[in-house]
Amino acid sequence: MGDRFIYFDHAATTPVRKEVLEEMLPYFSDRFGNASTVYSIGRQSKKAVEEARERVAKALNADIREIFFTGSGTEADNWAIKGVAYANRTKGKHIITTSIEHHAVLHTCQYLEKEGFEVTYLSVDKDGLINIEELKAAIRPDTILITIMFANNEIGTIQPIQEIGRIAKEKGIYFHTDAVQAAGNVKIDVNALNIDLLSLSAHKFYGPKGIGALYIRKGVKITSFMHGGAQERGRRASTENVPAIVGLGKAIEIADSRIDEYNKHLIDLREKAYNEIMNKIPFVRLNGHRHNRLPGNLNFSFEFVEGESLLLMLDMKGICASSGSACTSGSLDPSHVLLAIGLPHEIAHGSLRLTFGEDNTIEDVDYLMSVLPDIVARLRDMSPLYEAYLKNKNK
Fold first, then answer.
1. Residues 6+ away with beta carbon under 8 Å from 85
2. Residue 234, helix vs strand vs coil
3. Using an 8 Å Cβ cutoff, are 222 and 228 in contact?
4. 0.90 cut: is pTM over it?
5. Could you report the per-residue pLDDT of 60-76, keeping only the tens digit for each?
6. How many helices (H) and strands (E) does the chain have?
7. 3-state helix, strand, coil in the chain (%, to 5)
8. On the CB side of 320, how many CA atoms lie within 13 Å of its CA?
9. Ramachandran region of residue 259, left (φ > 0), alpha (ψ -120 to 50) or beta?
10. Catalytic residues
């Protein structure tokens, strides 16, 4: 493969689109003004920030005054959860989430538990879906927030967001969704889905890293996240990162305008890869819902295979993939998501996540399938577990 590589890890991050970069570049140099100043180059930056805010609002069917820029999706999650918890603690101290959230949500909830809040962690079924009846049963008079991700970053399963939003609205409980994997990849209408707060991150849909946004429905009681200035209408102090904000706005505008054709392309790649892997490699299972999943996400567990070795051997063949979330790839523990859907430790360790993007082609999938079966077979040949399985089978 030489210096060439095939990138199948778009859930971890995406390249910045050329059109996005071109729109950002002037704000690093010629139009460098601080958006909070009153002279012309400052006003130029302020105008660019507000145009980006309008683009984000349009993509979510929100009001422009409901969009607040943050430093990341993680920051947006932290602000939504802590902000609502602290602002509403006189009303109640109970939060509902799930066992398969991104650590930006799980760790924030665990932090709040130390602060005196109580958190219910809903279980999921083998496909990674919550049980709506379990959600209803978990609601208490002092429940102030339901925070459930739109789509899982590892297994791609999409939750019944509209139903969750309806239940939350009926009960007068705020509903936050971590839509970092979903925004820019599936169509989202915050009003139709009854979402009160939504987190997103530009680098998941061909925008720059280090910039996110939080949608906060008008009327939601929430504390400010950072103090020190009047930026973001006094709710999130810090000099605006104008080039990144411009990039986020352009990236979400492009993503929203192309979403149907983009999804069709991803589903074509996903289905081809799914069918070939299931037909050509034994002892493999799909993780996550078969159809109700992100268009470009596949997650498999290969029995008798160690995931890290699989990734390293794919890398030697010029293929970039993942065993789960990029944020936990340094951990030796199996994925909390895979354990939550019922996988035993040894099978959870043998997972492979493939997430497709706009530059991937059918030929890329063909190349993957020209090397993956042999890699899996080689790793199994080295596995004492596989050897023991064969011995028992042949008795």
1. 93, 95, 112, 115, 117, 144, 145
2. helix
3. no
4. yes
5. 999 999 999 999 999 99
6. 13, 12
7. 45, 15, 40
8. 16
9. alpha
10. 327
